[in-house]
Design brief:
The protein has 332 residues and is α+β, with helices and mostly antiparallel strands. The chain is 31% helix and 23% strand. The strands form four sheets. It has a seven-stranded mixed β-sheet with strand order 2-10-11-12-13-16-17. The structure holds zinc ion.
Length: 332
């Protein structure tokens, strides 16, 4: 019972944004994908609003990350549902909709409880990568809360349940929250890892955490550093919703790399207060991340010197500097 619906489709950019363009030379247009959506996920009550939001200006060529201007710039609320030992499942909502997007449901029960408590339904699932702690709850949730599932094209077969295979440069419009997300390729933690970004909100999965980043399981250090450079280029005010509560350990490492950093010391105090009060330490902003996250600071002279000292040789290549820091953190 699937039928095409133009209101749930990823739009390809006529020209791929520089943040996704991993190839040299002129960018090539990508074919528009049409994603079928189960009719039952679209309640009647929202149709007027959906019809209004379904209009898009034609020929959007780029997204202006620098100014933060987007086609849809809804005020989104993003709530944390803690799951497993230290995962966050992010729930993306807008205040005039009962439907939400569920990001990386590693576990079903806490999401189901959150939906029931708040009288919400699922409008879509967004998946960043194939790891079980990000997709383990999907099958069970779909049984009671069917909705389209968006996920990384190259990991879709491994994940299962993916209706819409997306990759860097795709755009997906979620009309139930009045928002268009762009998909960014961020390989490194896994090879097919993607992130979803819209005005002020980055759903980063295990690519970027507060004050840290994911381990490089499948890709190379160069790949991961390139992915992080892509995320670092987003606007200052972008809030980073990563998949794990690792911030205190991350900040301890950041302080080992930069013992004299006032910004890191202030972040440690703030995060200790938040955690003592039982609050998530996420999200941070990209403006702050550029100051406190050693994995985004390969071009800081002090960080470069410290990494060089650790390596026992002069480092200049960003991928090498990142790699030394990543190995150091993995060993600590
Ligand atoms: Zn992972």
């Amino acid at each position: 019972m699937y039928r095409p619906d133009h209101r749930f489709r990823a739009r390809s950019l006529a020209r791929r944004s520089e943040y996704n363009d991993t190839q040299s030379g002129p960018a090539k247009p990508r074919p528009t994908k049409r994603f079928p959506v189960p009719a039952r996920t679209r309640p009647r009550a929202n149709r007027t609003r959906r019809a209004r939001l379904s209009h898009h200006p034609p020929q959007i060529e780029t997204i202006d990350f620098a100014s933060g201007r987007w086609q849809h710039s809804a005020m989104l609320e993003v709530k944390a549902v803690p799951a497993l030992s230290d995962n966050y499942i992010w729930i993306v909502a807008s205040d005039d909709s009962q439907q939400v997007a569920v990001v990386d449901p590693g576990e079903a029960a806490p999401v189901a409880a959150y939906l029931a408590e708040n009288g919400l339904e699922v409008g879509a699932y967004l998946i960043t990568h194939h790891h079980g702690d990000h997709v383990g709850g999907l099958k069970s949730l779909l049984a009671d809360h069917p909705a389209p599932v968006y996920g990384p094209a190259t990991e879709a077969d491994r994940i299962g349940h993916i209706d819409h295979r997306v990759a860097g440069g795709d755009r997906l419009t979620l009309d139930f929250i009045g928002t268009t997300f762009e998909v960014l390729d961020v390989p490194g933690h896994t090879l097919g890892h993607i992130a979803y970004v819209t005005d002020g909100v980055l759903l980063a999965g295990d690519a970027l955490f507060r004050a840290g980043c994911g381990r490089v399981f499948e890709g190379t250090h160069d790949q991961m550093q390139t992915s992080l450079a892509r995320l670092r280029a987003l606007p200052d005010a972008t809030r980073v919703y990563g998949g794990h509560e690792y911030t205190q350990k991350n900040l301890a490492f950041a302080q080992a790399v930069e013992p004299d950093s006032k910004a890191i010391q202030e972040a440690i105090e703030e995060v200790d207060r938040l955690r003592a009060a039982g609050q998530p330490s996420l999200p941070g902003t990209l403006a702050e991340e550029r100051l406190i996250n050693p994995f985004l600071r390969w071009d800081d002279e002090g960080v470069r010197a410290t990494a060089s000292q650790r390596a026992g040789r002069e480092l200049t290549d960003p991928g090498d500097i990142f790699g030394v820091l990543r190995d150091w953190k993995d060993a600590s």
